Amino acid sequence: MKIFNVGVVGATGMVGQRFVSLLENHPWFKLTVLAASARSAGKTYGEALGGRWVMPTPLPPEAARMTVLNAATDLCKIAQSVDFVFCAVDMKKDEIKALEEAYAKAECPVISNNSAHRFTPDVPMIIPELNAAHTQIIPFQRKRLGTKRGFVAVKSNCSLQSYVPALYPLNDFGVERALVCTYQAISGAGKTFDTWPEMADNVIPFIGGEEEKSEQEPLKIWGEISGGKILPAGSPRFTAQCIRVPVSNGHLAAVFADFKNKPSRDDILGVWQSFRGMAQELGLPSAPKQFLHYFDEDNMPQVKLQRDLEGGMAVSIGRLREDTQYQYKFVCLSHNTLRGAAGGAVLLAELLAAQGYID
Ligand code: NAP
Q1: Would you say residue 212 has pLDDT above 90?
Q2: Taking the CB of residue 15, how many other CB atoms lie within 10 A of it?
Q3: Residues with CB under 6 A from ligand 1
Q4: What's the gap in Å between 142 CA and the centre of ligand 1?
Q5: What is the pLDDT of residues 138-182, one digit of tens each?
């Protein structure tokens, strides 16, 4: 595999910092450009961050010395100097859409963490283990944009990266409907306990826009390509409540599910145990060896104990049992800024490189 030069747009943010730390020793991707807003542009990355570096590993010295570029005014320069960019910015939705399409039109593929393009019908929204085939929409998007190389691909919201991976492999039983309650970490809001002290000893029963994303995005993942668009599936039906809890990292979900053909408990455990997606088949560098881990103990999975499993890229599941109103209920967990954000985007970029969409 060739070595790709990579830029991070939104490099100073919570997700951007994750990209910088994940790219430090990446076997295929070399970090060569850091970009953010006019507030940071022109400073070294270390200066622009000030005291904002919150990753558990030290700020890579090489990155600290790099000069931060302006994501908008340096766009042409950035697009010409890298093979693709990761994008994670805090801007208005229409501004993000325009920025990402401008990079794509400058022939620079964009792998995005932002929600702006998730419902653009020819933009694939991919969890590489589940719907890798949706990359086949990219030629249609390139035609619309008038590009040869450039396109936008996105990853889905962090809230659903535990329960969608648990349910999707059970498709053979016809997943009909699911009710989920998510318990979401404060890093999902770009915060730490230092920057959000009100969250200590607190639970907030509202996360703006999150329930809609948790209910609607899965349908695009279950969707099919037809007529140059990804058509969202009509089922399973999802209903969600999303709650902010005083946890630094790791989103947990309590799930209730019904199937057309009710599987046995052993059927479900067998599917989870044996499941391998395209990421595992291709041996992508960031792919967990075992995507879905089931824990038999009644008090598992726990956020603190399992969020970092397989580099924070695996999904932990437990407490599978029959329910009185739904057929089954269980609990699942994933790391929101690794699998749910930057790690999931790096894995998606690896898939796109392995499939030849990024060359
Ligand atoms: P964040 O910590 O607030 O960082 C925002 C980044 O955007 C900073 O680098 C900031 O640069 C940059 N930015 C702001 N305005 C800009 C502009 N006008 N032009 C260029 N860059 C600009 O946000 P975050 O938590 O990393 O989230 C970033 C994106 O990822 C959001 O769309 C969020 O919804 C999504 N996301 C986050 C998570 C998560 O777990 N945190 C998970 C999935 C998706 P300056 O420092 O120069 O202002």
Answers
A1: yes
A2: 26
A3: 10-16, 36-37, 39-40, 71-72, 88-91, 113-115, 158, 187-188, 190, 336-337, 340-341
A4: 26
A5: 999 999 999 999 999 999 999 999 999 999 999 999 999 999 999
Across the strands, what pairs with 256?
A: 179, 329
Whether 14 shows a pLDDT value over 90: the answer reads no
Residue, of 15 and 202, whose pLDDT is higher: 202
* CA distances in angstroms from 123 to 8, 82, 88, listed in the order given: 20, 21, 16
Burial of 153 (0-12, 13-18, 19+ CB in 10 A): buried
Q: What are phi and psi of 71, to 5 degrees?
A: -60, -30
Domain ranges of the chain: 4-157+341-354, 159-335
- Nearest atom (ligand 1) to Cα of 12: 9
The Cβ-side half-sphere exposure at 312, using a 13 Å CA radius, reads 21
Question: Is the separation of the CB atoms in 185 and 250 below 8 Å?
Answer: yes
Contact 125, 155 (CB under 8 A): yes
Report the nearest atom of ligand 1 relative to the CA of 40. Answer: 47
Q: Domain spanning 4-157+341-354 has what CATH number?
A: 3.40.50.720
Instruction: Give the whole-angstrom CA distance, residue 123 versus residue 110.
Output: 11
Residue whose CA is at the smallest distance from ligand 1 atom 25: 190
Atom of ligand 1 nearest to the CA of 95: 18
Distance 88 CA to ligand 1 centre (A): 5
Q: Whole-prediction pTM value?
A: 0.97
pLDDT at 300 over 90: yes
Residue 88: both structure tokens together? 């994670």
Identical fold, 4-157+341-354 and 159-335: no
Catalytic residues: 158, 251
Give the residue, by CA position, lying nearest to ligand 1 atom 9. 10
Is residue 238's pLDDT more than 90? yes
Second CATH level (architecture) for the domain 159-335: 2-Layer Sandwich (3.30)
For residue 89, report the distance from its CA to the centre of ligand 1, in Å.
3
Burial class of residue 274 (count of CB atoms within 10 Å of its CB; 0-12, 13-18, 19+): exposed
